[in-house]
Design goal:
Strand order of the largest sheet: 1-9-8-5-4-2-3
Shape: globular
């Protein structure tokens, strides 16, 4: 059986156990020295001045938007192809998500569509770096500059990714990362972080994550309870040291996939636009997606669909009057994610390619 993902600690297991033991011995579990250290180390890894640890990647997006002063009455342009949490975070901030369709090849937010979606109420653009490949940030940044809009980057699938040699997350006012266990840098539970080069945004995000407190028991504004705990911060510190090598392995496996699938009936997506792709996932497209998935399942190969329903068609978004996005609608019926993770067995890609050859 080729599993879609492997979450059990492997070469990092001893470092993870030592990190947990360190926190247990210290007896400090929330807003302590592990979080302080992780924030410094993660900011450095991302090429950012500041990092603020929070409870989830969704909270990171919502808090980043609020830290920028975005809320009720504002609109935020985003992509229809992502986990729905990117749009839900906009709603959590009190703003309205506005969907522009995706680029048909890159599968991330189309800059031209984003520009056409701008209204007098638009306050920000929230691009998602999907599957580990950054959106077209130079073009999106140009749209934002033309209309005087903030950018909050969803980097939840793009740890250590770059766009034109520049770190993902560095193009806008702030960026959000997720440490959900399946991510390239995953915790053993939930977690997230905001990165920014603006000390004022970081300071407000730290207040907002902690109930809006200016100091203990003094709440200067409405905040939430969303703090990256000490055990998860320590685990992430341990795993951060492995992330560069894990990223190299993901890229190596992706190159092998691309080479083996050149003559396949499926199409690897998106095309490689930038060497900064970190391959959180390796999706392919097929107009016979369900049949392909069935064939792979019969061959003992697990696959998943990311994502089967475009966000504007989710019932939870109906009240936001979402625009229809025909390219995203089509892609959601064709996309299929193949197994890809740093410990994927050496012969797995051969087996996947052989099974696809029979479709």
């Amino acid at each position: 059986m080729i599993h879609f993902l492997q979450l059990t600690p492997g070469e990092d297991a001893a470092a993870v156990r030592a990190a947990i033991e360190r926190v247990m011995t210290r007896g400090w579990f929330v807003l302590g020295p592990e979080l302080d250290a992780f924030e410094r180390e993660f900011a450095e890894a991302c090429g950012a001045a500041e990092a603020v640890g929070v409870g989830t990647g969704t909270d990171a997006l919502a808090i980043a938007l609020r830290a920028l002063g975005i809320g009720p009455g504002d609109e935020v342009i985003t992509t229809p192809l992502s986990a729905a949490y990117s749009a839900l975070a906009i709603m959590m901030a009190g703003a309205r998500p506005v969907f522009a369709d995706i680029d048909p090849e890159r599968l991330t937010l189309d800059p031209g569509g984003a520009g056409a979606a701008v209204t007098a109420r638009t306050a920000a653009i929230l691009p998602v770096h999907l599957y580990g490949q950054p959106a077209d940030m130079p073009a999106i940044a140009a749209v934002a500059a033309r209309h005087n809009l903030a950018i909050v980057e969803d980097c939840c699938q793009a740890h250590l990714a770059t766009c034109g040699g520049k770190p993902a997350g560095s193009f806008g006012a702030a960026a959000a990362f997720s440490f959900y266990p399946t991510k390239n840098l995953g915790a053993l539970g939930d977690g997230g972080a905001i990165t920014t080069n603006d000390a004022r945004i970081a300071a407000r995000a730290r207040r907002l994550r902690n109930g809006g407190q200016t100091d203990r028991y003094h709440h200067g504004e409405f905040g939430v309870n969303s703090r990256l705990d000490e055990i998860q911060a320590a685990i992430l510190r341990a795993r951060l040291a492995f992330l560069p090598e894990w990223t190299v392995r993901r890229r190596t496996l992706a190159r092998e996939y691309r080479a083996r699938l050149e003559s396949s009936s499926v199409v690897a997506v998106p095309p490689l636009f930038d060497d900064g792709h970190v391959y959180h996932l390796f999706p392919v497209r097929s107009t016979s997606r369900d049949a392909v998935q069935k064939t792979l399942r019969a061959a003992g190969i697990e696959t998943l669909i990311h994502y089967p329903v475009p966000i504007p068609r989710q019932p939870a978004l109906a009240s936001e009057r979402p625009a229809d996005c025909p390219i995203a609608n089509r892609v959601c019926g064709e996309i299929l994610s193949l197994p890809l993770y740093p410990t994927l067995p050496a012969d797995a890609i051969d087996r996947v390619a052989a099974a696809l050859a029979s479709t």
